[in-house]
Amino acid sequence: MTDDRPEASYRDLKAVVLNCTLKPSPEPSHTDGLLRIPIAVFEANGVAVDHVRVLDHDLPPGVQPDMTEHGAATDGWPALFERIIAADICVIGTPLWLGEKSSVCNRLVERLYGNSGQVNERGQWAYYGKAAGCIVTGNEDGAKHAAMNLLYSLQHLGYAIPPQADAAWLGEVGPGPSYLDEGSGGPENDFSNRNATFMAWNLLHLARLLKDAGGFPAHGNQPEAWKRGDSLDFPNPEYR
Amino acid sequence: MTDDRPEASYRDLKAVVLNCTLKPSPEPSHTDGLLRIPIAVFEANGVAVDHVRVLDHDLPPGVQPDMTEHGAATDGWPALFERIIAADICVIGTPLWLGEKSSVCNRLVERLYGNSGQVNERGQWAYYGKAAGCIVTGNEDGAKHAAMNLLYSLQHLGYAIPPQADAAWLGEVGPGPSYLDEGSGGPENDFSNRNATFMAWNLLHLARLLKDAGGFPAHGNQPEAWKRGDSLDFPNPEYR
Amino acid sequence: MTDDRPEASYRDLKAVVLNCTLKPSPEPSHTDGLLRIPIAVFEANGVAVDHVRVLDHDLPPGVQPDMTEHGAATDGWPALFERIIAADICVIGTPLWLGEKSSVCNRLVERLYGNSGQVNERGQWAYYGKAAGCIVTGNEDGAKHAAMNLLYSLQHLGYAIPPQADAAWLGEVGPGPSYLDEGSGGPENDFSNRNATFMAWNLLHLARLLKDAGGFPAHGNQPEAWKRGDSLDFPNPEYR
Amino acid sequence: MTDDRPEASYRDLKAVVLNCTLKPSPEPSHTDGLLRIPIAVFEANGVAVDHVRVLDHDLPPGVQPDMTEHGAATDGWPALFERIIAADICVIGTPLWLGEKSSVCNRLVERLYGNSGQVNERGQWAYYGKAAGCIVTGNEDGAKHAAMNLLYSLQHLGYAIPPQADAAWLGEVGPGPSYLDEGSGGPENDFSNRNATFMAWNLLHLARLLKDAGGFPAHGNQPEAWKRGDSLDFPNPEYR
């Protein structure tokens, strides 16, 4: 075990960091407070970081790639989707209310889902070949609950999830200061700091492995191959 | 996109498949019905499969690596843990009751957690370098709820999660036949069959990448390095 | 056991039914399809039903009772809150996307939470004295997951939850028709029909009991009484 | 608002308090630490409390009322079920591991579910007419996640849930002392103390209302009435 820097370079990687606070810019966001850690680790390693406050984008409800084709007057999603799909790493950050991720975060997942039928040039679903994690901040409880839902959705969509891909800070049980509030103890919390740092490194490592492999290996995960009846070693041909 | 088999070989990989049914052997298990798919894909590719019915093992409650040191008369966990840690791939299968994973599955996760303080030879937590997924079967509802908890726990412990690492079969809403029951429609369900097959392949691919990399890359994820104050590009040294 | 109608009258009760579909009016909503059952049971018993499509209301993000005091240009919540707080029974209906309640539903819960610091004339939190339930519709999975979160939030806010306060319809596993689609089997599903009917009756019964009692009994649940140090039979006075 | 004691008497009520710790008796249980609050409130009001450590009972896996009829050598459940069904109030207490309720708690819910097909003398499912709540203790996170599942299961089985029927204590984020450990801050936590006290009172109130009503009102919630085609004001007779 050594602190020697890894030989790998990460300078060709891109990360998109999506803050799902309920507060519009330029209000300070506690979630941004904790997101600063993975952003700093990424940037220290030459990764281009696209830091997005989701609420600043007009995302009408719906699960189609472009809701203007379904009655919405405008839709900021197609442009935001291009930024997300351009990145090798995706980090979603959310606050907690009543122990649950924010409605802005829920909307983001719905819109990600709306593009889930698209395939990449290798015939895999669109989000294959990328790594994802999440950051949660809250007053007291709910980080694992929110993280399990977010990481589930991300892997279901096609992202790969490295070890320990979630990090959180929570205040003491009951009402109390939020992360960036004076005396919260948040920025000094060794556990949250370590987990956010480890998450960032694990995302770098997995994104590096996937990019070097030319994407997530393409066999046994292409919907058209299944539809046309390729074997894929499925054991009961009579059921195909 | 092609059906040519991948060039990679998987013959050096081992998989452990852990069935958390509430039924002791040799009773037939519906969960085994769906687990047969990843098992078949693994075996068709030369992967050694260790197929475990968790309930056949004596797993006393507790979160220590060996509960005989804490009052238990016997403990089957240390032996089972050796089989789990020997495998490159871990698949947990669970039935649903009231929309929730089984108590046997819950016990398994607790015992996995009991060993989570151990580190491997590279100073990472014990489960690093491996890939995990899950299979859920139930009468009607709860697959995603159970899967999000299981995949969360597995990544939190150190496993990496490939894309679409969960597969499920559910009967129609309301009481009805279970997977292996005559006329359930389970074994013929194209969606469940495809997802279970894709999960198996994605586990093979990710385990292959990790094994070829010599494990999950070791930097920024070693608890001792953090403790001794290595930088790891953490942005606020005054908080270390 | 008898089918004689209950002696109680429900004609003085009001119910608010909140549909959290992602589709704006006047698009047909599958969730409305299942909500028609509790609405019909309520109306057959003379209960005034306020049927709301939440998306038709402008609900900016935030957790304050009136977001125009915090930078929002407009806020439809204060008016909608008055309709919700006027009702003795609250039913939330939500569709499922990726096994999760809708973002519109998440927003509704956030806004309900924003008023949770208010107290009623008896010093209890604002939602005390009312009964709540939920309806979930989806293509295949997630009803219990969504219902457990919704019912949790509602009881945490102060609503009382009768037995079997959730009902759902789900299609077969995998893509398929939605509730109102031709051939879905939804409207004929005996299990969903029964559960939606039972939920409606259990809400009527509990709302009746609470209204007859003059609200939820007021002792041991008033925050000001706790703050001023009333005993309330708390066992360790040295910790007060 | 007054601290005058309520006029109602609770001396005819019984409560069962089920501690789902992973530690067998007589080891001290942190969960018992917090459970002492509702127990004290109940006893101060003359309620007979049956305090159970679930792990002291032999509960084989399975979802039948008596597993000795399905191959188990012994089964402690039938005797424990009698104690649970004899009580007007049920409180489940659970610790958290990896943000999840204990496997002992999961087993308890499975066994409760195994009796869910039984009906009471009024043709309602067995758990109707009773009130339930839960207590959660943990090192850092997961209380709401565990509570939402427990309260969901309890209402689905037939219990009624009063307002604010969950209470929890959690330590600071990251490893740290447990509830009864020196310096944990648990027993002095005003928020946890208040919530546990309010939960206890709300259970008393709702159990009182239900007992005075002769149980949960019996109409629109009897499975046999539905099966034989009673109207129950269901709106689409052609689907019955």
Rg of chain A, Cα atoms, Å: 19 Å
According to CATH, what is the topology of chain A?
Answer: Rossmann fold
Order of helices and strands of chain A: EHEHEEHEHEHH
Number of strands of chain A: 6
Proportion of residues in extended strands of chain A: 15-25%
User: Would you identify the regions of chain A where 5 or more consecutive residues have pLDDT less than 50?
Assistant: none
Structural class of chain A, by secondary structure, is: alpha/beta
Kindly report how far apart the N and C termini of chain A lie. Answer: 49 Å
Largest interface: A-B, 73 and 73 residues
Shape of chain A: globular
What does the largest sheet of chain A look like? 6 strands, mixed
Text of the CATH class of chain A: Alpha Beta
Please report the number of helical segments of chain A: 6
CATH architecture of chain A: 3-Layer(aba) Sandwich
Reconstruct the topology from this structure.
The structure is a homotetramer of 240-residue chains.
Chain A: E1 14-19, H1 30-44, E2 48-53, H2 77-85, E3 89-97, E4 100-101, H3 103-114, E5 131-138, H4 143-157, E6 166-170, H5 190-212, H6 223-227
Parallel strand pairs in A: 1-2, 1-3, 3-5, 5-6
Antiparallel strand pairs in A: 3-4
Helix pairs in contact in A: 1-5
